Predict the 3D structure of the following.
Amino acid sequence: MNILVTGGAGYVGSHCVRKLCDRGDRVVVFDNLDKGHRAAIDDRATFVEGDLGHVKQVREVLAAAPFDAVMHFAAHAEVNESVSDPLRYYRNNVINSIALLEAMRQQQVGKLVFSSSCAVYGIPPSVPIEEDMPKNPINPYGRTKLAIEWAIEDCVTAWGLGATALRYFNAAGAAADGTIGEDHAPESHLIPRVLEVALGQSDGVKIFGVDYPTPDGSCVRDYIHVDDLAEVHRVALDTQPDGKFRCFNVGTGLGVSVKELVQAARDVTGHDIPATPAARREGDPPELYADPTRARTALNWEPRYTEIRGIVETAWNWHKNHPGGYAS
């Protein structure tokens, strides 16, 4: 299969590219390397450095080969940044995605797997979160993801595109062999920030809120291993019907508190990781975890990593051998 992967130099995208190359697909990665890393791209893939904002270049890439499908990861993804600079997010996540859809229609590319987010739900009325729950995103990042889901669904109706939106929960971990992993600048994800303490790169972590109505008072989240995310992308593509829109929550269905995660990191690294209670952050729901029943049933998919310790172990294997990320 010939597949274009936008954002394939990024964290989740690079793991998915490897999965596709392993099974013999012809993969073209399209990435501007703003947040991604050239070293993360599998050598078996073809790399085209470019930006979705350059419409002519996007059309030229899609016209260069008869692509069977697109996997669309390219997006800005920092919630706080989206609040302070919303137009940057609407321009990149929405306008550029629409340009991609137009180019796909022009070249008659009939299948799309879209990297969406649980941020489309906002603060849910209850947990676990089911796909049919109300979509009330509370930040521009979540709103842009929902806007593109709507645009994709309308394209399905209008011209027969077959598309799946995968709503991630908290992507985590690294490739089992430790060769590719998570490297953001600045780093905002919890597991790498906790592991930075074990590496001596930080003095400690803050636990934002210890008085939530959860078993230990700290926030609860659903951590899904990046290799499991890559696998569900592959399965979603292989099972995609023509002319149909599907959406799936992608998580383990198991909630892990911040305190539990920090303790798992202590156990895995053997390092004391000081954790200081801090005030709640505005807009942080007490609990967010998926009901992944639909994905498990429709896609016959099961996450391999269901324990937080195993996820942290793969992350630690990456970070301790790459303390400076890909620059190491």
Q: What stands out?
A: Residues 86-106 form the longest helix (21 residues). DSSP finds ten helices and 14 strands in the chain. The mean pLDDT is 96.
